[in-house]
Design brief:
The structure holds two protein chains of two kinds.
Chain A lengths: L2 H28 L10 H9 L5 E2 L3 E4 L3 E4 L3 E7 L6 E8 L6 E6 L8 E6 L5 E9 L4 E12 L4
Parallel strand pairs in A: 1-9, 3-9
Antiparallel strand pairs in A: 2-4, 4-7, 5-6, 5-8, 8-9
Chain B lengths: L4 E6 L8 E8 L22 E8 L2 E8 L8 E7 L4 E9 L4 E8 L4
Antiparallel strand pairs in B: 1-2, 2-5, 3-4, 3-6, 6-7
Classes of the chains: A alpha+beta, B mainly beta.
Chain lengths: 154, 110
């Protein structure tokens, strides 16, 4: 191998090495578990519900405090007045968080009743949405305004 | 490293066919990537739970997808229809690949 050829190979392999971390970096950002994605409520709902538009309904019962002193811990309770066979999943969205999607619970008939409770963080005063995905393909939701005195997103 | 996790069944006494509530808590900081370290001023990298799976016997009964906006030491509560004596297993997975498992026995009485 002469000098010119050697330099060429080194240059090419160097370029490949330089490109590959950039590629994997951009790929990783798409993957799950890489921190919060910034998106709006509409985008988040579209992603999670796969394009379905939820309709407001009395059947979804969302229990949340109307005033939460500490935004870092806001208890949320969701139950759906429907037989469990009809409910596939319960999703919780917080409108003005950096990423509105918070949690999704995928239920099965073994759960007995469609009920889910957890504690979430809220950045500021906003609406909280609970969406129930039904097995017939539709989605129903309830919303509640929660006033937050101290935000909980850092 | 296994984290501390708790599962409680409410009410404590139940029969076959009852619907009980399962409460679970795991100790986890749930860093979302926005909080800054008070000493160095640098943001703490995201570290949070992404998946929770619940098995009753060997059947997967509930799967919970979690985002970083769930509070620290996440609490999840759901219902369970008791129809057999079997272990209830919960598996928590976080974005750094840590896995925590906790098993309790479901023993219906009467």
């Amino acid at each position: 191998m002469n000098r010119r050829k050697f330099l060429k190979t080194v240059a090419i392999s160097g370029a490949v090495v330089a490109v590959s971390p950039a590629l994997t970096g951009s790929f990783k950002a798409e993957a799950k578990g890489e921190g919060l994605k910034k998106r709006t409520l509409e985008e988040a709902m579209k992603d999670i519900l796969k394009g379905k538009k939820p309709v407001e309904s009395e059947k979804v019962k969302l229990i949340a405090p109307s005033i939460a002193e500490n935004g870092a811990v806001v208890p949320i309770k969701v139950s759906v007045v429907e037989p469990i066979e009809n409910v596939k999943a319960i999703h919780i969205f917080a409108e003005k968080n950096p990423d509105p999607w918070t949690v999704s619970a995928h239920l099965t008939p073994q759960n007995g009743k469609p009920y889910f409770a957890t504690r979430i963080r809220l950045a500021k005063t906003m609406n909280v949405y609970a969406v129930a995905e039904l097995s017939d393909g539709s989605a129903i939701m309830a919303k509640k305004a929660v006033k937050v005195t101290i935000g909980g997103c850092g | 490293m296994a984290r501390t996790a708790l599962i409680k069944i409410k009410p404590r006494r139940y029969k076959k066919g009852d619907i009980v509530r399962v409460d679970s808590v795991i100790m986890h900081p749930m860093y979302n990537g926005l909080i800054k370290d008070k000493k160095t001023g640098k943001p703490i990298p995201p570290h949070y739970i992404t998946d929770v799976e619940v098995y009753y016997g060997d059947q997967l009964i509930t799967k919970i997808d979690v985002n970083a906006s769930v509070s620290a030491n996440p609490y999840f509560s759901f219902n369970l229809k008791v129809d057999k004596e079997a272990p209830l297993k919960m598996i928590w997975k976080d974005n750094k690949g840590e896995i925590t498992e906790k098993v309790i026995q479901i023993k219906p009485r009467g």
